[in-house]
Amino acid sequence: MRLSLITIKRRPDSDDVSRRETLLEGAELRVGRGADVDVNLPDVNVAYHHASLTEGSEGLVLTAVGGSVIEVNGSPVEKVVMAAGVTARIGMYELQGENAPDHADRAIALSKLDIEDVVVSELPQQIAESLPSRRRLSWLAVIAVIALFVAWPLFDIMQRQAPDPNEIIVKGMTPQTEASLASSQQAIRTAEAPMASAAGYSPMEAAWLSGPMSRAHAGLAEDCSACHVRPFEMTTNESCLSCHAEVDQHGDVGTHPILALDNFRCAACHKEHVGGDAPIERASTVCTDCHLNLKTMSPDTTLLNVGDFGKEHPQFRPTLVTGVENIDGVLTPLTVRAPVDAQYPLKEVSGLNFPHNVHLNEKGVRGLGRASDKTWDMGCNSCHVAEADGSLMRPIEMERDCGYCHELTFKADNIDVLRELPHAKPTQVSEIIHDYYSARVLEGGVKVPGAPEGARRRPGTKLSDEDRAQSLEWASQQAENELKGIMETRLCGDCHIAAADVEKDARGRTIWRVEGALLQRHWMPKSFFEHGPHFAMDCVSCHEATKSKESSDVLMPGIEICQDCHLGEQAGDTTASSECLACHDFHIDDYGPMSPDHGAAMTVRRSAAERIEIKREATQ
Fold it and tell me: The whole model's pTM is what?
């Protein structure tokens, strides 16, 4: 059956009528509200499949389905033959039979009743039907928005009187009192509070304010164009980088191009108009959205995937010193990163012999040299003192931190004079020892068994050339023996490893080499740690030093020690801080500066000095 469905529409407030024909084919055509029916009647009072149109012996038949109702002349029927002129009603729609055109077997007209033609009791109970038309509602909303959020704020601004400059000058010259200071502090708190409650603004004015600026950008609060190139548009990266072009990259884009962040906005991590000290988004998701799937984003990266600190953070990998090289007179460490593993303890080779357990002896520590008759109760903070910023420990210095107990003095047999030796200067130590013994034999009066006669003579008597030569040779041998003990077993040998060169110098004296010590200060250079917030904790609760017998022991704690308190950002506000920015910086020193292209061309690291020169040239 080919059915010509003619849809009739009447334009509002007009007598114009449009007729649109649609040809439908099928043995049975479904009528209803559903989206899959052939004749769609969008009315809540119509069932999804309300009726069916079929070809019968008497003509086109409209049959109700599933107990639905069809009205003919105001009476409900289950079936009606849609002959020409017969009208049937379903909900708000009328179907009327018509004479079929040449290209169709049957024809039927479909029209929607006007609201005035329907009895009030038959209308669907919808709020929308009792309101004005959508067009009228739209115009009412537009007028309300303009009146409330444009006209009213403009009126308030025009009515506000500008402050008198003379009054401002006089007020500035007036001495501050307690009341005026309190008023100024209250004004500052008000300015930093949400703008909706700021004094001097009407409620509608406050609706236009985006929120308080951070203190870092407080000077731009009255200059929107400094960041927003066009009104009502988001801040662009170029606007940020016009002032912050020298901000460091997130990493070395030459090694890790993905770190250039070309497709990211500065504002993705820096949220302004929320107050605070700086416009920094501290939520860890800003970092973990990328770092949790680094291997997927960049399969060749050597970085590890990182998620929430409590559950998805990898084990700590401290940077260990594996050796020390002397390059042009400068001690340079050789380092490697390795994960903390209780089964395979890490070892460090720093060139230093130091037993922690001896210095943390509960019975006290006895000094050396002139201090050998004294005993001290030592703790970790006896040697390790945090720097002023509370992050790293200050470098250990022998003279300041060790010299009070470890006095570098020596005393030869049968000689009651103590000599002071310099630290970290083996050549000078050798000269001092040799000069010391040479001076003693030339003075005479040496009482050491086996000393030559010239050295044992009465002081002040003449020394023959032969006795002089013998005495100096004996003094040189005594000095060599003394140096061997100092370098290998005591004084220098207590803490350092010393070795004698195979060849001697031009005078036949042994050349001693003392291995330099270079202790690691920043075990995790990709992060930072503040000791200040942990002042209530005992050092050994994280660094188990009381059982350490070798200086090669790495006493850095594993991540599980930290996770006892830092349970992760998802654990709630009652735990210790666990967001990424608590331990990591985003803009890292020694990498290339930012640029409008996010530093895509800057793949070579620049030193801090080079960046300073760039700034200096830009300001000249």
Answer: 0.59
